[in-house]
Amino acid sequence: MVDLLYIHGFGSEYKPNSDKIKAIEEYGFKVHGFTIDYTLPKKNLISMLKFFIRENNIDCIIGTSMGGHLALEVANELSIPVVAINPAIQPYKTLKAGKHIHHVTGKEFYLKQTTVDSYTDVTHQAKALIVLNMDDDVICPKDTIYKYSQYYKIEKLSSGGHRCDNILKAMPSIVNFFNHE
Hints:
This protein is an alpha/beta fold. It has helices at residues 19-26, 42-55, 66-78, 91-94, 113-118, 141-148, 167-179; strands at residues 2-7, 29-32, 60-64, 82-85, 98-101, 108-111, 128-133, 153-157. The strands form 2 sheets. A 6-stranded parallel β-sheet has the order 2-1-3-4-7-8, with helices on both faces. Strands 5-6 form a two-stranded antiparallel sheet. α2 packs across α3. The protein is globular.
């Protein structure tokens, strides 16, 4: 069985019983994850993720949105294959300091400007597949294509929105990518 780390997006949490996780597991992956505290600087999160990957013998990563951004960075550093779904491409520009609402709990949390500034661009050395839903209304798919197409393979899906509600449609391409890396 292949051990996979799933990294959720900003203002969310790791939910082992979510439809996305179940869909990934249907394809034979053993999914691992934990809730990321995006109020911490990027370097702290990268350190935690690298430790988790080593401790759990992770073979590959899937990350969504801000999780896709972090997944690309960690994969660059550890040379493991990654799939980034609708990844954040310039969070230092798009995230805002101040009050935010957690998508799952509804609780308020605060993001410092220094934390926003820590989310710099990723380097482009990972073995990566970018999965884009062309109807993403949070991160412009055309901007993602422009930023990453010269570095990574891109799989375009017509629908599914930012949250990738169509993960089952993407899974054959994801499995194929991981099988060949």
